Each structure stands twice: as C-alpha cells, then as structure tokens.
Amino acid sequence: xxxxxxxxxxxxxxxxxxxxxxxxxxxxxxxxxxxxxxxxxxxxxxxxxxxxxxxxxxxxxxxxxxxxxxxxxxxxxxxxxxxxxxxxxxxxxxxxxxxxxxxxxxxxxxxxxxxxxxxxxxxxxxxxxxxxxxxxxxxxxxxxxxxxxxxxxxxxxxxxxxxxxxxxxxxxxxxxxxxxxxxxxxxxxxxxxxxxxxxxxxxxxxxxxxxxxxxxxxxxxxxxxxxxxxxxxxxxxxxxxxxxxxxxxxxxxxxxxxxxxxxxxxxxxxxxxxxxxxxxxxxxxx
Length: 286
Hints:
The chain is α/β, with parallel strands linked by helices and 286 residues long. 33% of the residues lie in helices and 17% in strands.
C-alpha cells in the first residue's frame, strides 16, 4: 500500500433501526449529543485534509457505532474528502436507510466525486426487504459509486441471502460469521455460505495477531485517541498532535473481525480487495 488508510469512529452511538441483537437503537442521542458528533466530524474532516500529505493518507473509512448516513453532515464531509485531490477513496459503513436521492443531491452540490466513494452496505433482514435493499444498492452503483453488501451468517436466513445475492446483480455480498450462534457451522452450512460469499472461509479461520503486518493503517476516535485498529490498545499519541504516521502497536492474541484482519498486509488482502482492502470491494467487482 503506497498510501496510508484511516478508519474513523465518531461519538455517534444511535441507529434508526431496531434490530433485536443490537444496542444502539436502544439509546437515542439527544440533540446536544448529535451536535457534538457533527462538530467533531467536521473538525476531523478539516484536520484530515490538512494532515493528508504529511501523513501520506490516501483513504478514509467511517465505521460508526450506529447509523451515520441519516445525518446530512456526514454526506457533506464525504463529498469534501472525495473532492480533495490528494485522496484516492472515502467510504462509510451504512444500513442504506437514508434517502438515496437526497444524499446524491447533497453530495453533488458539495462537488463530491462518486468514483471515489465506497459504501459498505449492511443488510438487516429484521428491518428491510431484499427487493428494497438491493434496489438501493443498484441505484447507487448506477451513479458510479462502488459498494459491497454484507450480512450476518445466520443459518435460518440462508434462503433469504441466496435471494439477496441474486437481486444484487453482481454486487459482492460478504457474510460475517454469526457470533451468537453458540455452535460450529455444519459442513452443509459452510458450503452454503461459501456459495453466497466465496471468501466466507476467511471468517472461520483463526488469525493470530501479528503487528508487523499492520503498517499503513490507523484507527481514529472522535476524541482524538488513536489505535492501530479498532480492537487494539490506545496509542500514546493523539490525532491533534500527530505529525508522522505512528508505529503499529497491538497486544491482542487474535484478529477477531474483518476490520482487524482485513487491513493487514498479509492474508492476500490487497490481491483480493485492492490497495485499500478495508472497503471490502473485490478487485473483480471494482
């Protein structure tokens, strides 16, 4: 990776969906808290563009606790970053519940560059239908926006996920291992999920942590705290004072999620997903 990649998580911890397994919809944020998140995000965007050249940053991925794309300040910030000449790509994790037309209007008004925007769209079967979700994905792709779609590998949803894969019409559908399953997947289930996601086997493998494979990425929190990745320990430096890209640090025994193992320089990540593999968009679908 010639340039570095940043992951950003704001203070937002709320969602407009009400999935049974997720805590974020159960703790709505006040107007004051949302305003704080907006100010933190806008400040980060400005500082990111100031620091990008010195830190050799080429891409940003926003990974909120909750749903950020229902808030217009994220639309504007994504557009500003995409229009910045030094950036190759900017992306965000979203449930796609926002108004696609309103977002596109705001994005283009802010002179956003759709070819630089990458969306990680998560499908929540409790809250939306296959046809609706897939139509949104196809509409965004029709605007030149690259995206992947994802879901949790719940065995009871296998047929639904087969239907989603077909409806996505070539957009890559990844499957995350279900943490709450409390049993191993059967061989038949594994084969079925591999038919949906050819890289599902990577979710089942135990990946020992190896900090030597974690150069070139950094996780930034709204308050300025830094980590090598989302599950590693807090670094001594903070974002505001950072002048050189930090040496990676980690005390974990395993990389336990895609945001951890997907950004490593091993595991064939760049060969499969390009120079910024955390966007999770396969080369064949770029």
